[in-house]
Specification:
Layout lengths: L16 E10 L2 E11 L4 E5 L6 H8 L5 E8 L2 E2 L13 E4 L11 H8 L7 H14 L1 H5 L10 H13 L5 E5 L7 H16 L3 E6 L2 H7 L2 E6 L2 E7 H5 L2 H7 L3
Parallel strand pairs: 3-8, 3-9, 6-7, 7-8
Antiparallel strand pairs: 1-2, 1-4, 4-5, 9-10
Length: 250
Amino acid sequence: MSAPHTSPRSQGRQPLLAVQGLTAAYDRTPVLHGVDLEVPQGAFVTVVGANTAGKSTLLRAISGLVPKVSGRIAFDGQDLLRLPSHRIPALGIAHVPEGRHVFPEMTVEENLYIGGYVRRRDMATLRQACERIYALFPRLRERRRQNAGTLSGGEQQMVAIGRALMLSPRLLLLDEPSHGLAPKVVEELHHTLREIHAQGQTILLVEQNTRLALSAADHAYVLESGSVVLSGPSRDLLGDARVREAYLGL
């Protein structure tokens, strides 16, 4: 599958995130091969593809978590490859990894406040951020004193996303948020992601559930074996015969 690629419109402005010629490897195993990708301010962009396409590695590279990377990753013009991974969240990039990774022995609210650690000196702002999370996920308010390890998988995913939003990030990276969740919960989750985006949040979503990802996002990239093979407006890719055959079983 290959075709000319189009990027989301930045309306003449520098994109918030620009990935150019990105290669990444673990030990001697290459995973990404010359990936180009843009995320404009306020956009909802998704990357879809099979399990071994390199989608998670792309997000990990943006967050500085891949040992061998070359190319360029620029966030608001700043080169992320020159920064250690622990400095990247303070720039306004929040990463929700696959598998949720909540702190099971801590309460829901304690988990959320950890997400705002870099802003810990401004407790009034953190409390406002926490109230916003509870408005998005009312079930978390009900369970705020409950240990996160006792929650359902869907509720733990809400905690993981809420924890990232406590940073009030300029860019939210989401890695396979629907993985392992019941279909109804997945639908609810993607509805909430669209709501978060409507509030102005810039999102880069990696997702294997191609239909839901293309339905939620504005623009999409198709990754195969570590390379971008197709990109364009999500609605166009949703109707593309190649995408429908390869990823939607139609």
